[in-house]
Design brief:
heterodimer, A: 272 residues, mainly alpha, Ferritin, 10 helices, globular, B: 163 residues, alpha/beta, GMP Synthetase, Chain A, domain 3, 2 domains, four-stranded mixed beta sheet, three-stranded mixed beta sheet, 7 strands, 21% strand
């Protein structure tokens, strides 16, 4: 099962008294956390273009990447506005360094083979679906509006990954073995999705953010159902990787950012 | 210059075609939301994206500004609004007819309210009208379309996904 790493952090819903400016900074940081997840995974999806197993899959992964990129743009734009720094979406995407990114480590993992990409998409879309579904009722109007749009797109992503995991898991001996191996690769990164911190918990208390811990059960239930239906086994993991929300990343993120940020940094200010 | 009315501005803006489905206007699609004109002739136009990553929004914004600029309205602000989230239910009846005529199956069924993926009813082939069709790929040439094929006439076709 997905390990329940004890929150080293304050319990959910703890009331924190913030000034308006502190609250704005916190909302910005929360939007950045959501936006960085979407941005980094959008880039991973784009890496598949022209390399997917079939043409239709190229199109599917490109479309899913585009949805995620759209979500990232709205979230990063909002983060830069609300936190008072006036940073644009491009400033945030292209001119922050690795340690300033607060995405979870799951989304930065290399694509691996197609099965790893689908295992990651299944986990992430299942998590994101539960998250956005609840964020639709956020008291922050912008976050609620972004979530209401995104949840409908993510439902398609989750469905796409589900179909592939079923097809590969309950397929040939080779495809089943590789789909299982893929789940084993991504599983140690699952628990991080459900970690909060003081900032998130403060916003949960104000009805703005969703408590990540609340997403653990519904996400796990969905994943377990699909994995079992695919005749696969939920990996037995004892080591859980974490740190992304504090800027601690795997080796893979630096390479990803080098590629993603190269053009913008070579030609600062160049518009389309 | 005579006073600018909301109706006049809306009529101009409503005729802007969608860059990816030029057979439809942004009004047919439901991408055009509200038009406001204040006493000083300052115009505000609200548009909403179909999908979060819809790459057509910048082009639509530019087209709206250009069309209004052509008739001498320069004091124009185009705002991107997100709420309420766009749905294929907002595509007008005339929009659905135009899609079909263009060879694209319009969305069948309504977006599920609060549910997961909306139910898609049988998709009719826009070429021969047969309902004996199959989905080839849930993701198509643009974010809003899926790729289908007809078992009767063997033609592939695009279908707008229920969202």
């Amino acid at each position: 099962m997905i390990g329940s790493k004890p929150a080293e952090l304050s319990p959910s819903g703890q009331a924190i008294t913030w000034s308006d400016s502190d609250k704005s900074v916190a909302v910005g940081a929360y939007a950045l956390r959501l936006g960085d997840d979407a941005l980094v995974l959008a880039h991973r999806m784009a890496e598949w273009i022209a390399s997917a197993p079939e043409l239709e899959e190229d199109v599917a992964l490109a479309n899913i990447g585009l949805d995620l990129l759209g979500q990232a743009r709205m979230l990063l734009t909002y983060a830069g506005e609300v936190d008072g720094t006036g940073r644009s979406e491009d400033d945030l995407a292209y001119f922050r360094d690795e340690r300033e990114f607060v995405n979870c480590q799951l989304v930065e993992l290399p694509n691996g083979d197609f099965a790893v990409t689908m295992a990651r998409m299944l986990v992430f879309a299942a998590y994101q679906y539960e998250l956005y579904d609840r964020l639709c009722s956020s008291s922050d109007e912008t976050l609620a509006a972004v979530a209401a749009k995104a949840v409908k797109e993510v439902a398609y992503h989750r469905d796409h990954a589900t179909r592939w995991v079923l097809r590969l898991g309950d397929g040939t001996a080779e495809s089943q073995q590789r789909m299982q191996a893929a789940l084993d690769v991504v599983w140690p990164y699952v628990s991080e999705l459900f970690e909060g911190n003081e900032l998130v918990h403060g916003l949960v208390g104000g009805g703005i953010a969703v408590d990540p811990a609340e997403l653990r059960d519904p996400t796990t239930d969905y994943l377990t159902t699909v994995i079992e239906q695919a005749t696969l086994t939920v990996p037995d993991t004892s080591v859980w990787h974490t740190g992304g929300r504090r800027g601690i990343h795997t080796e893979a993120l630096g390479y990803l950012l080098a590629e993603m940020q190269h053009l913008a940094r070579t030609h600062p200010g160049a518009p389309w | 210059m005579s006073a600018v009315t909301v109706e006049a501005v809306r009529a101009i803006v409503a005729a802007v075609p969608d860059p990816e489905l030029p057979v439809l206007t942004i009004d047919d699609l439901g991408v055009l939301r509200e038009v406001r004109v204040d006493d000083d002739g300052h115009v505000e136009v609200d548009i909403t994206p179909t999908y979060s990553g819809c790459p057509a929004m910048d082009a639509i914004r530019a087209d709206v500004e250009r069309r209004l600029g052509d008739v001498g309205m320069a004091d124009v602000v185009v705002r991107l609004v997100l709420a309420p989230a766009w749905s294929t239910d907002e595509i007008s009846e005339s929009g659905r007819r135009k899609l079909l005529h263009f060879g694209i199956a319009p969305p069948t069924g309504r977006a599920a309210v609060g549910g997961p993926v909306a139910l898609t009813l049988a998709v009719r082939c826009p070429q021969c009208g047969s309902s004996d069709t199959r989905e080839l790929s849930r993701f198509g040439s643009t974010a809003c379309k899926a790729l289908w094929a007809c078992n009767a006439c063997q033609e592939p076709f695009d279908a707008v996904k229920v969202l």
